[in-house]
Write a structure and sequence with these properties.
Elements (H helix, E strand, L loop, with lengths): L25 H19 L18 H7 L3 E6 L7 H10 L2 E4 L5 H4 L9 H12 L3 E9 L5 H4 L3 H18 L6 E6 L12 H6 L3 H12 L4 E6 L7 H15 L6 E4 L2 E3 L7 H9 L4 E12 L4 H19 L4 E6 L9 H4 L3 E2 L12 H9 L12 H4 L14 E9 L3 E10 L5 E2 L2 E5 L5 E6 L2 E3 L4 E5 L6 E2 L4 E9 L11 E2 L2 E2 L1 E2 L1
Parallel strand pairs: 1-2, 1-9, 2-3, 3-4, 4-5, 5-6, 6-8, 7-8, 8-9, 11-22
Antiparallel strand pairs: 8-10, 11-12, 12-19, 13-18, 14-17, 14-20, 15-19, 16-17, 20-21
Helix pairs in contact: 1-2, 7-9, 12-14
The structure holds (3S,4R)-3-hydroxy-2-oxopiperidin-4-yl beta-D-xylopyranoside (XIL).
The site of (3S,4R)-3-hydroxy-2-oxopiperidin-4-yl beta-D-xylopyranoside has 6 residues, from loops.
């Protein structure tokens, strides 16, 4: 396996008959009920700030609140180092309700030498998740990669014991604290044969059932998953996963779900993804999109970002269309956190947030797919932008101006902002980006959604003030705490175009 296999498009080959969706999976109703019960508490802790006017729908503008209303979760991967980036965590805690540790629960971290365990990094992720009302997907217990060399150097007669001890110790440590475990990660080769890793070589194909049974014994409440890439559409590899899950179910082996990693290449979300998910749920397991990203050959064009937006919408719609698809997780919060540039040379821009945690068109498309109102104008492909007079500012300088006034007291301030469209085209949906002075934290906002609460933030229109005719103005504002610096932002940009003052 090379890194470049991730997301590789596969020819469909010979595909066995696909069972059709038998209707709602019984566990889906229960899952939805339980999740919705928790939704209010999670929403109460959200950093995403909605208009004080209490407009209908305003509270539903985060990915997680929209997802929860649809009965699914929306997650992200986080690494321990991510936790010290306050701009990142503000987005993470306001938008996502599920966390997958990026590396911290893998074998090389948790048991770097035989019998000596290190759960500190994983515990840090769990604490962050708990503190922010998020659940955790445990990732992962058994994987050929990020496996310390002591495991692969063991005599084959000792591998089963080492695997069972590892699973038992880790799953017991996190018992009751994880929603699910990726028990075995990436077991298959591209042709659907099992990967000849240390576990297969020692135990044959039975290692998978053994791993699942061992995990279930340690944490009976955790949902147990097999997770792999290039199994999103119907192909030889997903057929093999399908056959494996069918066989495990028929033997009564505890298995609750299949994780579709979903490391896509721009424009290559398989058209068979929904049907593929349906055939898995027909076996009586859940499915989840576990590691979504959509990589672009750099530099990314406006047309690329628009394609990425439709790719994200397609994935979310596929999940929403399948009873038993429990959630979607992106692999990393923003482009700055993504593994893609370091793994796939020349590729990047693979997530919903840019390097400065500004939402990209894929974020807006995700909000829309989840039933929310489009937060900002979705940039159109550059080829058609000039032919679309009702689209927002397309780059002409000086097409907006912003006046702001700050009223400060010793620890707080209010700021009123007037935005004027000085261009000749109507703006349909806007976002105003600006950077708060150090120490300022937004606590409430009116006539806009403001997120995150500190650093570089974006104020986004609500449903009733998204349209700005040429010469039109709108007023928004927010309240913030400060630690001595009550300065106004130095500059503002509307839909990516810098505004003049006034
Ligand atoms: C990646 C991490 O993001 C990187 O930091 C690490 O160097 C390699 O692994 N499939 C998986 C994830 O299941 O665990 C991988 O995460 C990405 C591919």
């Amino acid at each position: 396996m090379t890194a470049h296999d991730y997301g590789r498009r596969r020819s469909s080959g010979a595909i066995p008959p696909t069972p059709h969706d038998p209707g709602p999976h019984p566990s889906r109703t229960l899952f939805r009920r339980g999740l919705l019960g928790a939704a209010a508490a999670v929403a109460a802790g959200a950093l995403l700030l909605t208009g004080m006017g209490g407009q209908a729908g305003a509270a539903g503008t985060s990915l997680k609140s929209l997802a929860e209303a649809k009965g699914i979760y929306f997650g992200t991967a986080l690494t321990q180092s991510n936790l010290s980036n306050s701009t990142l965590t503000a987005v993470a805690s306001s938008q996502f309700d599920m966390v997958t540790p990026g590396n911290e629960m893998k074998w090389d971290t948790t048991e770097p030498s035989n019998g000596s365990y290190n759960f500190g990094p994983g515990d840090a992720i769990v604490s962050y998740a708990k503190a922010n009302g998020m659940r955790v997907r445990g990732h992962n217990l058994v994987w050929h990669s990020q496996l310390p060399s002591w495991v692969s150097s063991l005599p084959t007669s000792q591998v089963q014991g080492a695997m069972e001890a590892h699973i038992t110790t880790e799953a017991t440590h996190y018992k009751g604290q994880v929603y699910s475990w990726d028990v075995v990660n990436e077991p298959f080769n591209e042709d659907g044969t099992l990967r000849a890793d240390a576990f297969y070589n020692a135990m044959g194909s039975g290692y998978i059932a053994d791993a699942l049974r061992t995990a279930h014994a340690a944490d009976p409440a955790a949902k147990l998953y097999l997770n792999d890439y290039n199994i999103e559409g119907e192909n030889a590899k997903s057929d093999a996963m399908y056959n494996l899950v069918a066989s495990l179910k028929s033997q009564g082996v505890p298995i609750d779900g299949v994780g579709l990693e979903s490391h896509f290449i721009l424009g290559q979300v398989p058209s068979t993804m929904k049907a593929n998910m349906q055939r898995f749920t027909a076996l009586g397991v859940n499915v989840a999109v576990t590691e979504l990203d959509d990589r672009i050959a750099l530099p990314a064009s406006t047309a690329n970002l628009a394609q990425q937006a439709s790719d994200y919408a397609a994935v979310i719609n596929d999940c929403l269309g399948v009873s038993g698809c429990v959630g979607v997780s992106q692999w990393g919060v923003g482009d700055a956190d993504s593994w893609i540039p370091g793994t796939f040379s020349g590729y990047g821009a693979a997530t919903m947030y840019d390097n400065n945690y500004q939402p990209k068109p894929a974020y807006n498309a995700s909000v829309t797919a989840l039933g929310g109102s489009t937060a900002t104008a979705t940039p159109t492909p550059s080829a058609s932008a000039s032919a679309s007079p009702t689209t927002g500012p397309t780059g002409a300088a000086g097409s907006c101006k912003v006046a702001d006034t700050v009223n400060a007291w010793n620890t707080g301030l209010t700021e009123n902002i007037t935005i004027t469209n000085t261009g000749s085209s109507t703006v349909n949906g806007w976002s105003l980006a600006f950077t708060l002075a150090p120490g300022q934290t937004v606590t409430s906002a009116w006539n806009a959604t403001v997120s995150p609460s500190s650093g570089t933030v974006t104020a986004t229109n609500l449903s009733y003030n998204g349209t700005l005719a040429p010469g039109g103005t709108t007023q928004i504002g927010f309240q913030a705490t400060h630690t001595g610096n009550a300065a106004a932002p130095a500059s503002f940009a509307l839909n990516g175009v810098s505004c003049s003052a006034g």
